[in-house]
Amino acid sequence: IYFLIFILFIPVLGLLENKLLNNH
């Protein structure tokens, strides 16, 4: 279960990183 959540969470982290880079 945690493994599936981790796989789904990876793209979310990528999107957050892109937003942070765009803000900077």
TrEMBL record:
<keyword id="KW-0496">Mitochondrion</keyword>
<protein>
    <submittedName>
        <fullName>Cytochrome b</fullName>
    </submittedName>
</protein>
